[in-house]
Design goal:
The chain has 166 residues and is mainly alpha-helical. It is built from two helices and no strands.
């Protein structure tokens, strides 16, 4: 009979453990999703800001380029070859600058993604550890409670047996 009780208690503990693990998985998934969404929003916001900044810089460069072109037109007579060379250099500088800004943007996005992944992993590990500790604590409390109940039952049976023996 005690064996049957122990088996039933073990089955109940297994069910409780499965329930807690499922709950933990659901909470983990929710937290990871929330963290991911927050980081993705932040990444999008930073990307938008960077694109706006690059657009402003591009507009400033285009304005400078138009000014250079205007000046070149005024000096057109004897300086056509010099103006053309200067214009090409300026365009090449602008192109190089824009390419550098693009590379910086890509590198920043990659760093942010890597950081996001590291933070996600840290959050997930921390939450797993917290949940594992909570499950162990609850299982220990339940185990101790059942042991006390079993001891109390044995004590009652012993007292009953002693009454009957007398």
């Amino acid at each position: 009979q005690e064996q049957a009780k122990l088996q039933e208690e073990r089955a109940q503990l297994d069910l409780l453990r499965q329930s807690l693990l499922t709950e933990r998985d659901e909470r983990d998934n929710r937290r990871i999703s929330e963290t991911t969404e927050a980081y993705e929003r932040r990444l999008q916001q930073e990307r938008r800001e960077m694109e706006e900044r690059l657009q402003r810089e591009l507009e400033e460069k285009e304005k400078l380029l138009r000014e250079v072109e205007r000046r070149q037109q005024m000096e057109q007579e004897g300086l056509a070859a010099e103006r053309e060379r200067s214009k090409r250099e300026r365009e090449e500088e602008l192109r190089a600058l824009l390419q550098q800004k693009d590379r910086e943007t890509v590198e920043r996005e990659e760093r942010l993604r890597a950081q996001l992944e590291q933070e996600r992993e840290a959050v997930r590990k921390k939450e797993e550890e917290r949940i594992r500790a909570e499950v162990e604590r609850k299982m220990k409390i339940e185990y101790e409670q059942r042991m006390r109940e079993a001891e109390a039952e044995r004590q009652r049976e012993r007292e009953q047996w002693e009454k009957e023996y007398r």
